[in-house]
Structures are given as C-alpha cells and as structure tokens.
Amino acid sequence: MANTATDTQAQEAPEAGTLTDGFHLVIDALKLNGITNIYNVPGIPITDLGRFMQAEGMRILSFRHEQHAGYAAAIAGYLTQKPGVCLTVSAPGFLNGLTALAHATTNCYPMILISGSSEREIVDLMQGDYEEMDQLAIAKPLCKAAYRVLHAEDIGIAVARAIRAAVSGRPGGVYLDLPAALLGQTMDALKGQQSLVKVIDPAPAQLPAPEAVTRALDVLKSAKKPLIILGKGAAYSQADDKIRELVEKSGIPYIAMSMAKGLLPDDHDLYAGAARSLVLKESDTVMLIGARLNWLLSHGKGKQWGTEPKKFVHIDIDPKEMDSNVEIAAPMVGDIASCVGLLLDGMGGDWKTPPSDWINAVKAKRDANVEKMAPRLQNNNVPMDFHGALGVLKRIVADNPDMVLVNEGANTLDFARSIIDMFKPRKRLDVGTWGVMGIGMGQAIAAAVETGEQVLCIEGDSAFGFSGMEIETICRYNLPVCVVVFNNGGIYRGTDKNPTGGSDVAPTVFVKDARYDKMMEAFGGLGFYATSPDELNQAVTEAIKAGRPALINAVIDENAGTESGRIGNLNPQSVVAKK
Description:
The chain is α/β, with parallel strands linked by helices.
C-alpha cells in the first residue's frame, strides 16, 4: 500500500502559482522515501540533477566509472535494506551501470539504476539522437523490473514502484528511465507535491504455510547428522538474533557462506567452517537459510557432498528456488525472519539436540584443522606468501571487529575467506554469486559512506586493476578506506612465460615491481610498501590509526598462487597436442 505525501508527512504547501519541475520531483520523491545517498557519474542529461540533489541536502558521490558507482549502490542496498541508487548518463553510461544492475539482481541486492535517455520520438524512429538507445528494452532482461517516465506527474508513482520492486520478495535491481525532456517539464508545485508517494511496508512479511513449518521440524527431528548453511540472504534479512537463537537452541553445527560470515561469530562453538569438507560429505540433513544450491555449493551434488543421500530443508522467499538442483524434502517459502521465528516457536522447550558423536566428530575435525593451519599463518617469510600476509590481517580484523572487510581476487579471495574470521554480521563484503572482479573500490566506498566505519579492502593485484582509479574518489571524499593490494605481479601468479619467446609477456603477467602505493600518494592518500608480514602489520595498523585513505602495496612471492584460485576445475582443458 502507498499513500500520497500529504497523507504521510506534514509538508509546507507551496505558494499558489509556483511551479516545480522534473528535476525537483525526482529529488522530492527519493527524499520522501528516505533515500539520500546517490552514487553517480555526472554528464548529459543528468549533470544538473546531481547539482540540484546536492543543493537539497542529498549526498552525491561522483565516481570515475559508472560500473563502480553501480557496485557501490548495489552493496549499499545490501547493507541498508533500502534501494541503493546509481545515477548515470545515457547510452554508454547506462551500459556501464547495467553490469552492476545485473550483478545486484543476481545477488538479490535492492538497487535502482536511474539513467537519463534520449527522447522517445527520435529513438523510436531511429533518427540518430545524441547517445540514442532504447535503454528500457535492453535493461528489462537483466533486472527485476524496468520503468520509463514520460510525464512529470508520474515521477512520484514511478519512484514508488521502483522502490517496492527492488525490496519486495527476493530483492534485486530495478531500472528507471528518465528521458531528458522529462527533467525540464514543469507543473503546478502543489499538484506536484500531491503526486509524490511514500511507500508503506515495501517488503511485507511473507509467512510460510503452517504445514511447511511442521514438515521442516519433522525432518530436523529425524536427523542424525544435521548441518545448517547460512547464506548472504540470511545476513541481508537482519534477523540476527533469531538466527543465532535457532542455531543455539537446535544445537546443530553450521557453516557460513562468505558474506554470511560473522552472522554468528566465527569463533562460536558450533561453527564448522574449518570442518567444511567433513560436514558436507557426512551430514544426512542440511538446512539452508538464505543460501542457494548453486555452483558455490556444487549444486548440492557430486563428490563434495559424499555418497549417501541427504534431506534438505530450504528457507527462501522465492518458491522457484526450491528443487533447482536437487529435491528439497522440506521447502519453507517465506521471509527468513518469519520462517526462523516460526521454527523457534515450533521447537518448544524440549528440543533434542543432535547426537553427541556427530557434534564431537565435527569439533575434533575443526580443531585439528585450525591447529594444523596456525603455524602457516604466523610465518614471516620474505617475500610473503598468502598465509603469512593473511595471518597478519586476520589478527588485525579480530582486534577491530566493527571494521568492514571488502575482499576480491582469485587466490586473495579464496584464502582470505577461509583464513580471516568475522565476528559481526554484514562486515564481510565480496564478489558474490557471480564471482566477478572489480567490485572492490565501489563496495569499499559505499561501506564507508553507509556504515561510517573503517574499511579494510584486501585486493589481488589483478582485481584492483578493474577499479583502481576509484582511489581518487576515496581521496576526494576523504574516506577511511585502507586498501591492501596483494602484488605478485600477475593474474594468479607472475611467473608465466610467452611460449614463443617473443618480446610480449605472457597474458597473465603484469609489470614487475609495480608500485601501487605511489598511485595513492599521487591523490593525497597514504602509501605504504610492505615486503614482510611484520612490515604489513605495521603499515595497516598505522593506516587504520590515521583513519585516512591509504594503500599498502604488499609484495607477494610471484610463485604464490594457483590457477583460478580454488575454482581451476572450471577451466576447460584442451585436448589438442601442443606443438
């Protein structure tokens, strides 16, 4: 349900005879719905819209590339449960932002991409307007919903529809097309004010059927070796207390997908992250909370899951997610807070926890693996390997649990998510479902803006290259972001050779001894050069204490790293004999 602005918020009525325009109606519609941060790249036809937004008290953060502004808006939506807004120019700028919009939809982040566009009468006749493109048609397949506004009096309802589409049900991306002429349209200011819409209950609770709750509890009761898997959907739900109560009351071991780490602290007694292989193979019942059986979990089948059949309990707001890869014995379709709350009610006060043999086996394997790994994380090798460097950052994160960690790369990502413990929810942000590179600087900027906390961004040198110019944006807004670039001179590693012996380096090799720290210094930030774990610890500690933009060029052994990190199996193999 939605109400007009005058129904929900006392506003001073405009003077009789005054006018408003499309620029200000867009601004008023967003502000009315609590959206005040905008991530954008200025240009025709939205330059003045950004200026007017800033003049009206909104925070406008201008990026060097629309894709990174879009990644910022997407993760802002994840962190706040309100649509993050990315504002772009038409055609090429729109296309740049579209990658992030598709990423938001795939990852279930609420986001609105607002783009200026050419006029319909010219586009439809293909008469060659400036940056002419049928943007609405292009956007539709890649997002939850797409709308175009042609009349100023419809701006309020269009923004309301975009907000509701972005956050309701399974969240995702929404496209809002604003032709240039719309922004300059004028109308009576009082009628304009009355046309605005404040969205009421944009993401209403969706309760599962009572029989679904009973079925799920019956499956869990019969389990001998149960496991809970928490996904980033569980973290997004912000049902933190209920989820923790469910885990602790059930007594079931759990693992967390990378962005769900910290939903319960990683040092919790029931956390089985260090025994992941054991619990996936040997569990007989698995409850998925906000996690999908996609490629990140080997689609719920294969050798990773062992040979014995399993029963799955699946909590998801989208019924189409059920049975997507394997049979789901107990589907619970509804929002996570409602589903978990009803499970807790149904468990009562006499719930029987899993057999001690299972719990003890999981804990023994976890503790043994942690003990085995500990010496590798404490080495002070020069040049550094991934374990020594990440061992330092693991301790720094433990000492700063409110800090937000952003992480991307191949080996840098794979090692970091298994080594660095998290202690609070929504403090770890990374590449998400697609495993894309380039999210780093955009997510770091949004995390600093939306949370006000220190951000630590751990980047592979290849991943950093996608968005590295945005360190100027970080410096321009003086954000507390510390970037650590793991520099091993190439993609995966820096040792590949050109098989022809020619002058060109191999496709995966970068400039040797690159000084990324000098880039940060060029924009007025702090630059550090670290060649050992001790130097890395000193540099990151100093950067965090300063609370200023900083970049540490962490030199990693060029031989460190493996092909494609831990997903090298996804690389197709040639069967043609080499000459």
